[in-house]
């Protein structure tokens, strides 16, 4: 069950601190969790956890392929490995290991991929991946998620402890816009309807959920009723929800901090073409690599804004 937070507020806690607190809490509770890092301990607020619980935190260095192999081996001994690195390195850098050591062998490893899309900011183009979710969702057994805020991140992390298999979770590292009120719970594989509407449906994930909600408010001022869905599970996507809202509103706009190829827009289009073909537009990154900049600058530069969503929606009306 979900409840929305007041609009426009930032989370009280950074996402990286949610993760570090989760790992520490699991260790204190006696869980066999092992957190693995690729020389990003301080980036994910894991330094203090490693100092206090050195037997539960492994810094493998800048060797992402080895991190995945190590995690796979730990999983085979009954441990519960959680791997963290940046999205670029958690996808393209170690893809063969994701395939061979995790997905093909059905190993129980959770990969936390941070600095999603433009939120890599000053790390620039080499560290700013727009293709990562498309890479990972092509694996046969992967479950691919992109969390929206700190409340969701904390709840999903708790669920992952009790789920078996290869889960790949995309997130930002710092403060997110608060979407959900404390106490909200989430079902992996099910989208969340945040706003009802009759004229068009905006389907978003990650940082674009806040932009979609703002776009819906702007459209309402112009007499357009827009539904908003947070599709935080990219794979398996909530096919029935997409179909139902396509039938209801007859127009779809997808909104993602990712390439328009192989991400949310593509996944939604696959559902539509097989079930309920309706006009759609994809708001996302188009045929470009990343660059250095603030998040606000980069969202403007790549058209990842409420204004871009409104423009896309109007083109369908």
Automatic annotation (TrEMBL):
Protein source organism: Salmonella enterica subsp. enterica serovar Adjame
The Transketolase-like pyrimidine-binding domain, residue ranges: 13-179
SMART domains: Transket_pyr (SM00861)
Name of the molecule in the record: Transketolase family protein
Pfam family name, one: Transket_pyr
Family to which the UniProt record says this protein belongs: Belongs to the transketolase family.
Record keywords, A-Z: Thiamine pyrophosphate
Cofactor(s) demanded: thiamine diphosphate
Top-level division of the source organism's lineage: Bacteria
Record InterPro entries: PDH/Transketolase, THDP-binding, Transketo_C/PFOR_II, Transketolase-like_Pyr-bd, Transketolase_C
């Amino acid at each position: 069950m979900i409840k929305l937070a007041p609009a426009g507020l930032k989370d009280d806690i950074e996402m990286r601190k949610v993760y570090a607190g989760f790992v520490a809490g699991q260790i204190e509770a006696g869980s066999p969790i092992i957190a693995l890092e690729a020389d990003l301990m301080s980036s994910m607020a894991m330094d203090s956890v490693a100092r206090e619980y050195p037997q539960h935190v492994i810094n493998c260095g800048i060797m992402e392929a080895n991190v995945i192999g190590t995690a796979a081996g730990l999983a085979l001994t009954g441990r519960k490995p959680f791997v963290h690195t940046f999205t670029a390195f958690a996808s393209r850098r170690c893809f063969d290991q994701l395939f061979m050591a995790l997905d093909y062998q059905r190993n129980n490893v959770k990969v936390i991929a941070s600095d999603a899309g433009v939120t890599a900011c000053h790390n620039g183009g080499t560290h700013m991946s727009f293709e990562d979710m498309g890479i990972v969702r092509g694996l046969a057994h992967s479950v691919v998620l992109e969390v929206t805020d700190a409340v969701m991140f904390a709840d999903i992390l708790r669920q992952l402890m009790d789920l078996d298999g290869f889960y790949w979770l995309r997130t930002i590292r710092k403060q997110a816009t608060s979407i959900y009120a404390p106490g909200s719970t989430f079902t992996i594989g099910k989208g969340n309807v945040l706003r009802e509407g009759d004229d068009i449906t905006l389907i978003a994930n990650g940082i674009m959920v806040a932009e979609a909600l703002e776009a819906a408010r702007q459209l309402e001022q112009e007499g357009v009723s827009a539904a908003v869905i947070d599709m935080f599970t990219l794979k398996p996507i909530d096919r029935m929800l997409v179909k139902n809202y396509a039938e209801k509103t007859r127009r779809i706009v997808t909104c993602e901090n990712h390439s328009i190829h192989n991400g949310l827009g593509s996944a939604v289009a696959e559902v539509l073409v097989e079930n309920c073909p309706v006009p759609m537009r994809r708001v996302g990154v188009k045929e470009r690599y990343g660059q250095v900049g603030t998040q606000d600058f980069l969202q403007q530069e790549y058209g990842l804004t409420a204004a871009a969503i409104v423009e896309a929606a109007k083109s369908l009306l």
